[in-house]
Design brief:
The chain is an alpha/beta fold. It has eight helices and five strands. It has a single domain, classed as 3-Layer(aba) Sandwich (Rossmann fold), CATH 3.40.50. Helix 1 crosses helix 8 and helix 4 runs parallel beside helix 6.
């Protein structure tokens, strides 16, 4: 089984590949994960690389943008984000695509380090709502990472000192959610 993860710098970390593959293997659904991720990109940038992702002919695609789209210094409105996601999902095929909601950010760490300026959970919430709307309108799955992070009593454990990029625990969370989504889809095929 081939899985493609399409996103920004959060998805460039090798843990996205190795942990997802490990979770899938332990669940009895071994797969090969390919990362199509570039640091600093937003959905507008991602559109320029979309043909490469389509060419991968993966069984499942996981679209994980939003951290940069929601940043004040990127010029991607919520409406543009939704339009870009719609183009991505329809190009990849909604039936095999899932959108991960933009992740929680640690605003205190962002303010303290000044490494990831222009990001807030209020802004992330708008982009999360847009991602959910696109999934609903296109028929793509939604993996609500943001919710999984924020219902946990210590969401700062998931993000590193810059307030945006993930810790090992953050990668364990996101990759387990991807693996569960794959497993659910595969089980649904066998129960038709």
């Amino acid at each position: 089984m081939k899985i493609a993860i399409f996103g920004d710098s959060i998805s460039t970390n090798l843990d996205m590949k190795t942990l997802t593959e490990d979770f899938l293997s332990r669940m009895g659904f071994p797969g090969e994960v390919t990362l199509f991720a570039v640091a600093g990109e937003d959905t507008a940038d991602g559109l320029k690389r979309l043909a490469d992702v389509v060419a991968a002919e993966a069984d499942y695609y996981y679209v994980f943008f939003g951290a940069n789209d929601a940043a004040a210094h990127h010029d991607v409105s919520v409406e543009d984000f939704a339009a870009n996601l719609t183009t991505i999902v329809t190009s990849l095929g909604a039936a095999q695509t899932a959108i991960l909601t933009p992740a929680y950010v640690n605003e205190v760490a962002i303010a303290a380090t000044h490494q990831m300026p222009g990001r807030s959970n209020a802004s992330v919430a708008e982009y999360k709502a847009a991602a959910q709307a696109v999934a609903s309108q296109t028929g793509a799955n939604i993996v609500d990472l943001n919710h999984a992070m924020t219902v946990y009593p210590g969401p700062d454990e998931f993000v590193g000192s810059d307030g945006v990029h993930f810790t090992k625990v953050g990668y364990e969370l996101v990759t387990s959610l991807i693996a569960v989504d794959v497993r659910s889809r595969e089980l649904a095929k066998s129960h038709v």
